[in-house]
Amino acid sequence: MRDENTMLRYIEAEPDDIRRIVRDRERYTAAFVKHFLSHPVKRVYLSGNGSPHSVCVVAGMCMERLLGVEASSSLPAVLNRHAPFNANGVYRPEEMLLICPAQTGRTTGPIESARLARAAGIPVLCTTLSPGGALARECDIVIEKPTGFEESFPESRGHVASMVILLLCAVEAARALGRLDADEYRRWMDGFERLPESCGRAADAAKAWYADHRGMMLAADAYRFVGYGPCYGTLQESCLKILETTRRPSMAYELEEFLHGSGYGVKEDSVVFFVCAEDGPERERAREIYRWFAKKSKNCVLVCSRRTPGRQPNWLVSDFLDLPFLSAVEYLVPFQVLSHLTARELGLSTLTQAYPEIFTELHAIVEA
């Protein structure tokens, strides 16, 4: 008999997954670091469908910041057909790198991207659960994720593993290249070592919040997510998780973009999550925009650190670390939990896809 709480069990296992990845980080990052030491990488392309696309958004921003490369996140169909590699011809093949985060590695788009890149002499890296799979066979560097295949159809553990691995790759390469000094590297590793506990607390906070606000989640006809910086990638993934599990419309918006038409649909009972994560000017701006929309809907929720002043009864708070880029991992966890709990109370299974035949009938995957 299938356990309908399998997805929740996977989410609860994520802190231990992170601990193992951080502990064994050389295994997961060595090939990436070696590549950056032996190649003058200046341009990084990241591409994936579904959950991997949001990994691309977060990892791309981190690599630009730490490695000083130009990085972009593209959906495979866009990259393959409309936005070719090296369009201006300024980079040599060895100066470019394609990164394809993946789960099974059977999705046709990234496989085509990898083939196009290799045909142009551009090295390709993937993270995957299938080191001998279709995507991996097209890659120069294959990083096998340690989380195993998931019985629940929304990816949770595997997604977090891809994020943590690629963030660690960026940090370790930056250190090897002399772009991080010893103190900066130590601060990064301190954050990675504290991240598992933060994710565990965030899961517990989400369960407690849901117990008090389940009526809001169950009555919603749609869910909106608003945030900034690397957490925008996290909100894209949060949106996808809620949509996959509840089968209700979900939309993710960058903070300022939400003001330009997207927020006009907010009504008195609209559910809108505002994520207030990393420190800086955007943090206060997020609170300002939240306060404005809280006058329009009683179901505006600020997701933030417990340290944030002015706490309201419906805020979802935890002892988040709020560290650069690591916030994209810890702020995902509450929405993973909420997606499972809401779906289960709606009578929906998180083990069964809405349309399991879609990938084969529309030729979106290949055989392993």
Automatic annotation (TrEMBL):
Coiled-coil ranges (or none): none
InterPro entries: GlmS/AgaS_SIS, SIS_dom, SIS_dom_sf
Domain SIS positions: 33-179
The UniProt record lists the keyword Mitochondrion: no
MF-aspect GO terms: carbohydrate derivative binding; glutamine-fructose-6-phosphate transaminase (isomerizing) activity
Gene3D superfamilies in the cross-refs: Glucose-6-phosphate isomerase like protein, domain 1
Record keywords, A-Z: Repeat
Entry keyword annotation includes Repeat: yes
UniProt superkingdom: Bacteria
Gene Ontology BP, a term: protein N-linked glycosylation
Protein name, UniProt field: SIS domain-containing protein
Organism listed in the record: Anaerotruncus massiliensis (ex Liu et al. 2021)
Organism taxonomic ancestry: Bacteria, Bacillati, Bacillota, Clostridia, Eubacteriales
